[in-house]
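Support case: flavin-adenine dinucleotide complex. Customer-provided input:
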Amino acid sequence: MKVRLLRHTPDPEKTVAVAARLCYSPVGVDELNEKLGDDEIRKLVRFVVNSGHLSTTEHISFTFGIEGVSRALTHQLVRHRIASYNQQSQRYVKFRENFEYITPPSLRNNPKIKERFDYLIREAHKFYMEMLDNGIEAEDARYILPNASETKIIVTMNGRELLHFFTVRCCNRAQWEIRELATQMLKVVKKICPTVFEKAGPNCLRGPCPEGKFKCDNPPKASDFDA
Ligand SMILES: Cc1cc2nc3c(=O)[nH]c(=O)nc-3n(C[C@H](O)[C@H](O)[C@H](O)COP(=O)(O)OP(=O)(O)OC[C@H]3O[C@@H](n4cnc5c(N)ncnc54)[C@H](O)[C@@H]3O)c2cc1C
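Agent response - structure generated as follows:
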């Protein structure tokens, strides 16, 4: 899996702080923008995030380029609606020599199962190519390709959606691949925005686990999400 931060709002923590301060200040935007020092920025950001005034974090956004993930992962990712996506097309791109797929780690210790997994994917891909060679359009031939098919996607989320995304997808209840993606994304944004994402991650980092009978035995620590 390759996760690259392509772009983000410049000065993101200051942007959140200016938005927060504006709500309570009699002075104008220019003055606020000039006057805020680093300490005050940190204080304001911590205050709004901890008190749940999260609309201020909607002013900052982050664009990630993600490669080497499965279609199983992106199907889950795009369920997050407050985001923008562009994904490599299986209609316009034909996967001949360039067909790759993701193998779940659980198969690695089971050579017999892994062998059969690889065999069936190779067979599916062979038939995919046979369909293309027989004039079937890629948009129809792709129906035989597996969830494991490798894909690339660009996603942009604002700070508020990222906080939500990290809450549900860094949790041990989340599926391993999207959890790995969310963890990598959190490590990246935490470096740029350490105060906004100070307590980001699953609910159990901030309070009791809400998962009831699905509660895990090995909850992550905040430091697991440090770069
Ligand atoms: C462990 C786990 C298991 C899952 N299992 C399943 C499953 O079996 N089947 C399945 O279908 N999905 C499943 N999902 C996906 C899940 O149901 C959500 O679709 C996905 O996590 C997107 O999150 P979301 O809907 O909270 O918010 P997002 O789409 O990320 O939106 C963020 C927030 O905006 C608000 N919001 C967004 N859209 C609306 C709206 N239309 N109306 C009101 N408020 C809105 C909500 O507060 C929402 O939490 C699972 C997710 C997880 C983490």
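The radius of gyration is 22 Å.

Case will auto-close in a few days if no follow-up is received.
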